[in-house]
Amino acid sequence: MGEDLQSGGEPEFLGQCSDCGHVYTIQELEDGELRPVGTDGTCTCGNDGFVIHPAE
Ligand SMILES: [Zn+2]
Q1: Which domain holds residue 31?
Q2: The organism sits in which domain of life (predicted)?
Q3: How far does residue 19's CA lie from ligand 1's centre (Å)?
Q4: How many domains, the chain?
Q5: Distance in Å, CA 30 to ligand 1 centroid
Q6: Residue whose C-alpha is closest to residue 18's, from 43, 38, 39, 54
Q7: 26 lies in a domain?
Q8: Which of 53, 33, 55, 32 is nearest to 42 (CA)?
Q9: Cα–Cα distance between 35 and 30 in angstroms, integer?
Q10: Contact indicator for 47, 13 with CB cutoff of 8 Å
Q11: What does the alpha-carbon distance between residue 21 and residue 15 come to, in Å, rounded to a whole number?
Q12: Is residue 7 in a domain?
């Protein structure tokens, strides 16, 4: 019991647009693509490239 970071489900973490830097909650798809949750896969700026936000 207790918290387990590998407990399954969709992996979600913070990521940011590689162009404008807007931060999103990101899901990593099966093919490794990073997709911001709650969007159609692109940033509001139109960019579709994202990078994982460094944990602090
Ligand atoms: Zn952007």
Answers
A1: 12-52
A2: Archaea
A3: 5
A4: 1
A5: 23
A6: 43
A7: yes
A8: 33
A9: 11
A10: no
A11: 9
A12: no
Would you state the pLDDT for residue 44? 95
Question: Which pLDDT band holds residue 46 (cuts at 50, 70, 90)?
Answer: very high
Reported as a single tens digit per residue, the pLDDT across 5-45 is 555 566 688 999 999 999 999 998 889 889 999 898 999 99
Displacement of CA 13 from its chain's centroid (Å)? 5
First to last CA, the chain: 26
14-to-2, 25, 47 alpha-carbon distances in Å: 23, 5, 17
Question: Six-digit token pair at 48?
Answer: 């579709």
Q: Is the model's pLDDT at 2 over the cut of 90? A: no
Task: Determine the distance separating the centroid of ligand 1 and the alpha carbon of 56, expressed in angstroms.
Answer: 21
How far apart are alpha carbons 55 and 38 in whole angstroms? 21
